[in-house]
Amino acid sequence: MRTPLMAGNWKMFKTPAETKAFFEKFLPLVATSTHADVAICPPFVDIAAAVEAAAGSRVGIGGQNCYWQNKEGAFTAEVTPAMLKAAGCTYVIIGHSERRQYFHETDETVLKRTKAALEAGLIPMVCVGELLEERESGRTNEVLATQFNGGIAGLTPEEFAKIVIAYEPVWAIGTGKVATPEIAQDTHKAIRDLVAAKFGAEAAAAVRILYGGSVKPDNVKGLMAKPDIDGALVGGAALKPEDFAGVVNF
């Protein structure tokens, strides 16, 4: 039985003071929510405030990215996974579509970052997903296979067992569009089939695959009813305590 994971990605929003205020409202709303794991990934400057605010709760904190090795060095503006771990993080997002689109993240660097995160003891949420033109041209599964083979398949079975996969259709991120539960289920099933082919049926049955793409309180229930959807990677709706609690308490 896969425990759902409801993860919030704050992207480039909130100050430390706003982070503290968010948790003061959010934590009481999910205090009895034991049906799912919960994570929030704030900007780096808010991690300390988030860790402090979430102390004693079941809410894990994560980074939105990390460097691809744990050795310190002259790499201005980068943060090692070990630093995130030391700061109190449990999770880290790897290869988000915005990192791929704006900062030229590649499948190769996704794999390197994932391995470094695992080495530091973090749980990587490794993102895959297709652009609108790729879906409209019927290439969704081809794109996902390329991303999987280049960015995930290079893990050992032992490493793979410790990651989470997040499927995020790029055309549904922040657009208000959302894949129907049926479209999302079909795509999650295709990803699970890729896992089965590479790592075996047992690994495929165990891995959690999150859906990310305009998830809100009013559509999360339909998504979570599907057998291959194991949680959500939430953007905009994760910025408001009531909305994210509504997603968590689907």
Report on the structure:
Substrate binds at residues 9-11, 174, 214, 235-236. Its EC number is 5.3.1.1. It comes from Paludibaculum fermentans. The chain is α/β, with parallel strands linked by helices. It has one domain (5-248): Aldolase class I (TIM Barrel). It is 43% helix and 14% strand. It has twelve helices and eight strands. Strands 7-6-5-4-3-2-1-8 form an eight-stranded parallel β-sheet. Helix 2 (47-54) links the parallel strand 2 and strand 3. Helix 7 crosses helix 9. The longest helix is centred in the last third of the chain and has 19 residues, at 181-199. It starts with a strand and ends with a helix. 46% of the residues are buried.
Short description:
With 250 residues, the protein is α/β, with parallel strands linked by helices. Helix content is 43%, strand content 14%.
